[in-house]
Design brief:
19% strand, 308 residues, 13 strands, 5-stranded parallel sheet, alpha/beta, single chain
Length: 308
């Protein structure tokens, strides 16, 4: 399933999960990242209250049998030809993408059918799936049928990129909009947060080395924090209403077009807040930025054609 960010991929597969469980089949839902596994487990536990839903990831591996197993792709090694239905989401994400060991874990764990999902699948993934006899379903619209927010590119050199960041953030905070500010590395994330906190209170720094991420995200959702400076750790699997996004130095070598599309996809996901702003703050435009913007515009054009 090749579907844009916010299309509701998880919701789309709920019926087939329900059907498989009712048929007494073993169902697995695999995600590369631990944080997303925990969040999905909470959602599935509420939806399938009459069934046994478990999750498996690093530090939580005691129980391995349930009606629905939500797990990281690393943990698939525990299951040999086990799942009658195995769903893999975010197949383009690190560390699953391009990892032959994790891909072999996935293939070996399948006993029956499987579904692979991504908003930004690689050409190799699409080619492999088609050559294996699979069907590729494309969905270029969000469930609320509003277009994807198209990034606004702002070019600033030297220290002026920091001045622009302060100005953009000020405007968002004045409108009481929650904001994610993405930085390409942990070091830059921390230094950027130390800079911003001088001017604006109510901020938070989150990256992979911060242990209590879920608790702090909960406080952000409650409005206790106004903005988060973060890394790619929050580029997937999180949804907040009325969120605005700034990608600081979006032209950094670490930002691929796939990453830029995923980060942009954090905005406008809710039906009550289908719009929002995505700002690319850069020193100069590059090919990855052009590809990302073109892909988002292509999806919106497909939606317009569908609605005609």
């Amino acid at each position: 399933m090749h579907a844009v960010c916010g299309s509701g991929k998880t919701e789309i597969v709920l019926k087939v999960i329900k059907y498989a469980i009712e048929c007494g089949e073993r169902v697995g839902f695999a995600i590369p990242r631990r944080d997303v596994v925990i969040e999905l487990y909470s959602r599935f536990n509420e939806i399938f209250k009459k069934n046994k839903v478990i999750y498996i990831c690093g530090g939580h591996t005691e129980e391995t049998v349930g009606d629905l197993v939500v797990l990281t792709t690393h943990q698939l090694y525990r299951y040999d030809h086990y799942f009658d239905l195995l769903i893999a989401d975010e197949i383009d994400a690190f560390p699953f993408n391009g990892n032959p060991v994790l891909e072999s874990f996935f293939q070996r764990a399948i006993r029956g059918n499987y579904i692979m999902m991504s908003a930004t699948p690689t050409e190799n993934a699409l080619k492999f799936h088609k050559e294996s006899g699979g069907e590729v379903v494309e969905l270029f619209s969000r469930y609320h049928m509003h277009p994807l927010p198209e990034p606004k590119i702002i070019v600033r050199k030297g220290i002026f990129i920091y001045v622009e960041l302060l100005d953009v953030l000020r405007k968002f905070l004045k409108k009481t909009k929650p904001v994610f500010i993405f930085a390409p590395t942990i070091e830059m994330c921390e230094s950027l947060f130390m800079f911003l906190r001088i001017f604006y209170k109510g901020g938070l720094c989150l990256h992979s080395k911060v242990e209590d991420r879920q608790e702090k995200l909960g406080k952000f959702k409650e409005g206790i924090y106004r903005y988060i400076v973060t890394t790619a750790i929050l580029e997937r699997g999180v949804t907040f209403p009325d969120l605005q996004v700034i990608i600081f130095k979006a032209d950094h070598v670490l930002y691929t077009s796939h990453a830029l599309i995923q980060i942009s996809g954090r905005v406008g996901r809710k039906k009550d807040h289908p719009d929002g702003e995505v700002i690319f703050l850069i020193n100069e435009e590059n090919d990855q930025i052009k590809i990302a913007v073109d892909e988002i515009k292509r999806a919106n054009k497909s939606l317009q054609n569908m609605l005609k």
